[in-house]
Structures
1.
Amino acid sequence: MKLSGLGVLGTLLLLSGCSIFQKNDIPDPNVSNTASTNLKDVADAVYNELRQINAPAPVPRVNPESVHGCSTRLVSIDLDGDVMLLIDDMVKAKYCQVRVVGKKPPQDIVLSLHYKVKPLWTVLEDAGVQMGNLGSISVGENSVVFDFTPGVQK
């Protein structure tokens, strides 16, 4: 009796999967298209925002005739290393008065400068581009200012 009851119960469980009501697993195309469109719009917005954030900053062009003072001196430099090496070399060579504003970031700001007989302002312009958002260089009539103040880069 118990054995036949278990057999009937097992058969009922197997057959309960067969139903007279058919399930509709096909998604509604209107809902699917709306979700896809919304997802695509969000993805496009994120992509455009990331492109805008990662776009290189425009490099200001200097008119050579407008440059006066110590930055017009011709220099030759061969440097691969931290920006502090450039600052030390400039202080030792006494090209211009050198000032450092702010605290240097904890990571090294590696520069690669290789110039033969070029104006100092050209070298400093390239160094400023290589420093990116970690610092800025301002050239005055008789001084050069290296600014490492966070959030104030020019």
2.
Amino acid sequence: MAEHNGVTSCYDQQSASCSERDVGLNFQYEWLVKVCKRPIGNGEYAILNVSPAFSTAYNGIQFTWTLRLNADCLAHDYLSGCSNTVNVFLYYKDGPAQDVSMLDTKITVMDKKGNVVFPNLKIPESEWTLGSGWPAVTTDEEHHLLSVFLNDNVDSLIRIAVNISMPAAVFSPLHYFPQLDNACTRLEDACRKYLCDVEAQPSIVPNLDLLLNSDKPDVFAIHRLVFMDGCVQLKSKMKSYDKKKIYNVFAHMYFTECLMPSVIGFSDFIRVIEGLRFHNVTGLFREAERFICRKLLTCNTDAGTVKKMLLLAERYQMPVLKMMCAGILADHIIEYTDSAKRFDVMTKEMKLIAKQIDLDDAFSDANRNYDLLVESVVEDLKLLAKRMRRVSVSRSSSSTSTKSSRSSSPVPQSPALNICQ
């Protein structure tokens, strides 16, 4: 086991700071729509339009939404007897969290020339659940006037803009890993003592001697046995702490102090990922994903490295890393007008990268289809770029707009593996 010499504490300020939590990010999406009535049964027609999906994206993290313009009778499933009242709804379709907090959400309705007719119709809900949708809230008089306007503009073009303000903290990739930002010196010391005890006397771990003395010791089977025994022992000794907290702290420390010292290059890291996945050590596998995300945030990373990490995430099923890398690449692509050509070039580059990753993988499947893997990733990128293209973003504390999906916030140091070259 590695000793604790100069290794970063597990409490490395990876979550958002107070100032970051106070900052809001403002997004605006404008929908040009031809108001249509559609058959709903029994010879009746009602207004129903659904916008293309769009994504509020920053720092590589994306939340996907749709606007819906429809008669209230459809929103409430009242299909018998059509109502002429109409409203605008916003739906949360996809994202890294089941629930997300909103700072502010407003709808503006304009005529086809862009003249504002109904400004700042507020959606008051602050907590949104995946799949949920909420209407713009109006007074009875406003609702009547909005309905009249929309019914009068059937078969005509109008514009609907939505302004979404969200906490900056939800756009930190590290926000979606187990949080380790609370002081826990006693728990950290207990974890380290267990590792030192095992190093001094391996026999305290049941059956560890059998693995150590086998003809071909499986390193990751050994790591799994020690890690799982440590979780059991620490839960028994540290009963005043939450079990999940113990597991998260121990996983972070074990990964940092017992696995990372043996990692020098990228091929070593691939070996760690494959070994942890093969032996189903979920807690340590998540720490590997956290490590890569942190490194991408700290490095001035080139596009080639991000592409490599995206393929790594796709292959080894690392959802946060995949979202982060896809967001960075899509954000870069939409800055150019020749995106189709760039996607073609990217596809060729990523096929070469995928083969190189396979050469570094000791557990490689000779029949693996690289083309299908890359084509699936590129198709996802095309869809994401399309969703991000027409959404503008700015900070609530500044009027300056930004197109960057990378954060300039300082991120703590982690063990040295140079994935950024």
3.
Amino acid sequence: MKKYIITICLVFLSAAITTEAYAGYCLNANKGFKTSSMIKRYLTDLAANSSGYAVVKTIGKSTGMGKDITAILITENASWEDNRGKNSVVITGAIHGNEWATPEVCIGIAEYLLENKDNDEPARDDRGLLINEGATRKTTRRKGNEIIPEVTSIKELLKRIQVIIIPVLNPDGYDFSYTDEGRRSFYGAGWRENLRRHQQSTEVCYQRDGTVFPRPPRDAEHCFLGDYDLTSLGGGVDEESVIICESIGKKEISLFQPTLEIDSKDMLDAIYSSDSPRRVFCTSPHRRVWKHEWSADNNTSISFDKAKAEGYLRDALGVDLNRNFRYKWDVVKGQEHLFIRTRSYASRLYRGDDIFSENETRMMERLVKEKNVVALIDYHSGSTQVLYPYAYTKTERVKGNFFSGKTNLNDYEVFRFISKKIASILNRHDRGDSSIVNFTTGQNYLGSSVGSGVARDCYYSNERIAALNIEVHDRRYTYEDEEYRTVVPKICKTNVPGAIWFLFWAVGINQRNIY
């Protein structure tokens, strides 16, 4: 009996020690929001104490303010100059400035890797559960086309692959989102884009099929994307809400049918079917319309001069970096209604003047080529989903067999499997907050949203990279300080184990023994 009790105690003690050994990550998240420069200093400190396992580098400059874009490379004998025959996996955060939890997830991954760089035991999460439990089963027999990575420890992982982590891909937008004005942007959802100042000074107007008028028509009202607070009517806080039409002669502006959804065919049809007066959709960097309330009947026009004087007619600013990538950039066919947003300087979804027009996206294009990148996670906030290509369509599927390995799965089936596996890891523990768990998987944001020029589509289609987008917090972006210190560490702890499993899987890509 005494021997039995001692055995039980030893088992519990061993479990406690194991859990403690893997709990040393995401500790930085409870210190509150950090600017991009503070994050750079922290990464530099991590590298300085890594015994040669990490090096930090400024890999680019932001478009608007010229701020450093900082990356930490983690591997055995880390070097930016020599890949040492290894492939790389890239992990990015804050491509959208207001998605504050994502840099902390990236930092948490770096902390986990460096904390366990000498650990050759199977990796575990903060509650002691094995991350790659399939590879530690007594039998390694796979169930059908089950995907089981061969690597189980961080020590082995860092011998075989480089991990490049960029916590803040959009430092301009990220830092600005923490200012008073940045926090107020989009009715409290926060600033999303970078801070490019647009050089274009002329107005551009579009025909119904998305083609450009040779010159803006003088016999029509010019209608622009507007931002209007509809929360009291049940509207969202993170989307542009209305169209504002400018009278012929440019003397006044008025709301156009605020009951219609911006990104709907009904809105597009309503604009272009108008004949008294005729209306067309236009965009200009000098027509960013923000208004918190209009008259009760929504029909009162406001003079152009008053709109400028009261400050809700202003210059547009910024590019959505996750609409600026090469693949399917500026898609019109089948998505005609979306050009109201993606082509509008005033939109938080503005795609940029051209493919890779921004320093941030051009830098990523160079990086994935130079560092033999085979897999990538792009962290976002706004839902709890693991998303795979293609974002630009709800019907087309990826085609290829680049990641099939020892299975008979095509790439679409591989994406579905690994996404579901990661989601299952992220859903393991009840963190006391349903908005940071309950992960689902899919091709489209919230199951139905499409977007062109999106990073994961480009990485897969142009570079054959296994690219995922992981959304870490349902309908949340920014936080007050106390909430940040409470919820963001939980988000970090939730998401790091899923990233580690993905890294284990990525070790075998392009080696024909993936699983």
4.
Amino acid sequence: MEGLALLAVTACSWGLNWPVTKFILSELPPFTARAAGAGLGLAFALLLACWRGERLRPPRDQLWPLAVFASLNYGGFSVFTTIALVWLRASEAVVITYTLPIWAALLAWPMLGERPTLGRGAGMVLAFAGVALLVGADQTRAGLSEWPGIGSALLAAVLFALGTVIAKRRPLRMPPVAGVAWQIGLGSIPLLVLALFERPDWGRATPLAWCGLVYVGIMPMTVAYLTWFRALFLLPASIAATSVLLSPLVGVLASAALLGDPLGPRQLLALAVALTGVGLAARS
């Protein structure tokens, strides 16, 4: 029961992150908002690591893996999901990004020697059919205007998948919370650099936006990663990987409820097809 409860926390935290972040971007410049959320997440992770008595200084032989994971799983992923949310609805961005198990399966072939199976191939076809159905669901929007967002969401998925495969080959040997804190800190550097080119009007941010920043910094950026890794320890990997597919479902439903994103038969069909494909690939 503990493992399933942890997975529920992970899926809900990551899923709700998408509409909350999209709302914040309506009040603050995109990279400023993400950098602020990362700063709050870093502060929370450092406090939690100190409370747990974890050693913050990384071993010398872990500096390179730490930089790689921070660049892929936090820095690159945050930059490109931010761009995706600027161009796409939250419900679209979350489904496209959660094709990442497909990319992980493809990257595991040359990097880990895990040959793709027929099931994974069929899953890939279904997943991308679902994505195509989703992004073409609203005929009132210009299709070409969505491509920067679609490309950014796919690139974010590839980067996170690459980090996942590298972590499987060479896991990070650090206390869990301290490792997350370092990855948030290093991964925030590109966000901070990009935020320097923005001119935020902090007085425009409503209390609801500030609450959203606190949520993004604490739950999806810190707590969800810790509950995810703990769930992986307690449960079979296949169950954990399939259960986390609840995240895009939560993201789509929450986006419809909180932001008014379209949620009709075509969107639901696209979500079902995409998640079936990703689930098939994850279990094959």
